[in-house]
Amino acid sequence: MTTFVDEVKLYLRAGDGGNGCMSIRREKFKPLAGPDGGNGGDGGDITIVADPDVTTLLSYHHSPHRRSNSGEFGMGDYRHGAKAEDLELPVPVGTVVRDADGEVLADLSEPGMSYLAAEGGQGGLGNNALANSRRKAPGFALLGTPGDEIEVHLELKTVADVALVGYPSAGKSSLIAAMSAARPKIADYPFTTLHPNLGVVDSGNTRFTIADVPGLIEGAAEGRGLGLEFLRHVERCSVLVHVLDTATLEPGRDPLSDLDVILNELNSYEVPEGQVPLTERPSLVVLNKVDIPDGRELAEFVKQELEERGFRVFFVSAVAHEGLRELGFALGEIVEKAREERASELESRPRIVIRPKPKRQEAFTIRVEGGTWGNIYRIIGRKPELWVKQCDFTNDEAVGYLADRLAKLGIEDALVKAGAQAGSTVVVGAGEGQIFDWEPTLSSAAEVMTAHGTDPRLEESSRATRKERKAAYHEWMDAKAAARAQLEAEREAGLWTETADEKNS
C-alpha cells in the first residue's frame, strides 16, 4: 500500500458564477414598479497553500479531481446570490506547482505561502444593475461565467537543512534514528528506505532538520536503483553528509570507492537554475559502523586520504551513539552559517515592485485565419470573450446589448480594416469560441431595435378620449339611421314585403 507520494497530477475545476436575475417589481397599486433582479454570486477559487502539518501528497494521489462550488443565482426583490466558498488545498512545505507543460508556476518553499491555481467564475449582473437613464427596464440579465478548468502537477521537494546520502545499507536510517526522534524502517537488506525520512535535531542552541533519502548506487543517473528519483529532496539542503560503510562485506567496495561513485552520481544530477550544484555545497564524511573492530581499522586507514581531499571526517557508531554529539555540533555550525548567508542574500535582493497594468492597454486583437470557405476573423481579448460568455443568446435584447458593447469597443471598425465583408465568419475567443456571421449594417442594436430596455407593459396607453368616443358614437348612430331609411324605401318600392311572423316579432 502506498504511504508516501511526492509527485501527483491534479485536475482542478473552479466554480461557475451564478446567473443574474431578470425580474420586475410588483406592488399594490404599482404592478410594474421597475426592475429588481439581483446579481449572481461569484464562483469559488481554488488555492494551493503550503501547510507545515502536511508531509505527503497521498490524499491527492487517491483523489486527483478537485472542484469548488458555484455561486448562487440572483433573485427578485434585489436579492443577490451568495458567493461560493473558496477551496484551499494544503500541501507540504517545499511543493513546486507546474503547469501541464512543465513550466514552474509557484514554489511554495515557506509555510503559509499560497498560489491561486484556478479562479472562480464571475457572477452575472441582474437587470436592476443594468438599468440606467436610457434603459429603464431591461428585459434581460447577464449570465455567470464558467470557472477555470486546468491541470497542474505537484512535485514535493523536502525542505531540510542536512541530507544524508550514501550507498544502500550504509546506516543512514540508523543514524537519523539515533540523532532525532524519527523512526524510519531499519533492516539488514538493501533499499530498506523507499521514501525520504525527516528528523529534527537539537544541537546546542541550533535546531535543524535532517533528511534521509533512499540509497544511491552506481548507474543511478541512468535510472538504476531508487536514489536518483528522490534526489529532488536534497536540492534545498545546505549540507550534505556522506555516510560511508566501513564494515561492508561486498567484494570490490570500500569507503573511498563508495564516495567516488556517490560524488559522480551527485554531479550527474542537474539542479534548478540559480542553485548551487550538489557537489559544490558544504559536505562532511561520516565513517559509520566503527563499533565493529574491522570497521574502525578501515576507518583509521582511509581518514587521512579523505582529509587530504578537503573533507571533515567523523567516526560514528549509530548503535553505540559514538561521535553523534561532535557530528551534531559540526552540522549546527554549518547550518547557522548557511542561514546567515541566506538572510544576507534576501536583504541584498532588489525590492519587487508590483505596478498595476496601464488602463490604455490593447483591448483586443483580430487574427485573420484561412479556412476552407474563406477567411475567418478571430477576435482575441479579455473583454470580448467575457461579454460573449455573459450573453444569453436566447434573448434578443441581450444580443442587442452585446452588439452595443462590441461596437463601442471598436470591433466593427477593426473588422473593416482587417478586410471583413458582409457574411464573413467571425469567431470570438480561442479554440471553437463563439461563431457569428458578420453583418455590418446590423452590428449595432440601434439599427435593429428602436430602443433597448423597453417593456410594452410600461408603454403609454392608446385609449381614446371622451370627445373621440362621443364622436364615434354619433357616427355609429347616423350610420344606423341611414340603414333603416334605406330598408324603408326598399319596402315601399315593393322590393320585399313583411310576413305575418315578421310583423308579430
Model description:
- The protein is of the alpha/beta class and 505 residues long.
- The protein has 4 domains: 1-156, Spo0b-associated Gtp-binding Protein, Chain: A (Distorted Sandwich), CATH 2.70.210; 162-348, Rossmann fold, CATH 3.40.50; 365-457, GTP-binding protein OBG, C-terminal domain (GMP Synthetase, Chain A, domain 3, 2-Layer Sandwich); 466-504.
- 27% of the residues lie in helices and 20% in strands.
- It has 11 helices and 18 strands.
- The protein has helices at residues 58-62, 127-130, 172-179, 255-268, 293-308, 324-348, 382-390, 396-408, 411-418, 466-492, 500-504, and strands spanning 7-13, 46-50, 65-67, 87-91, 95-99, 104-108, 114-118, 149-156, 162-166, 197-203, 206-212, 239-245, 283-288, 312-316, 365-371, 374-380, 425-428, 434-437.
- A hairpin with a 5-residue loop joins β17 (425-428) and β18 (434-437).
- The termini are far apart.
- Mean pLDDT is 79; it is low at 185-194, 219-223 and 442-453.
| Number of alpha- plus pi-helical segments | 11
Ends distance: 106 Å
Poorly predicted runs are 185-194, 219-223, 442-453
| Rg over C-alpha atoms, rounded to the nearest angstrom | 41 Å
What is the strand tally? 18
CATH architecture of the largest domain: 3-Layer(aba) Sandwich
Shape: elongated
Record keyword descriptors for this entry.
about 25% helix; 4 domains; about 20% strand; GMP Synthetase, Chain A, domain 3; alpha/beta; Spo0b-associated Gtp-binding Protein, Chain: A; five-stranded mixed sheet; 11 helices; GTP1_OBG_dom_sf; about 500 residues; Rossmann fold; six-stranded mixed sheet; GTPase Obg
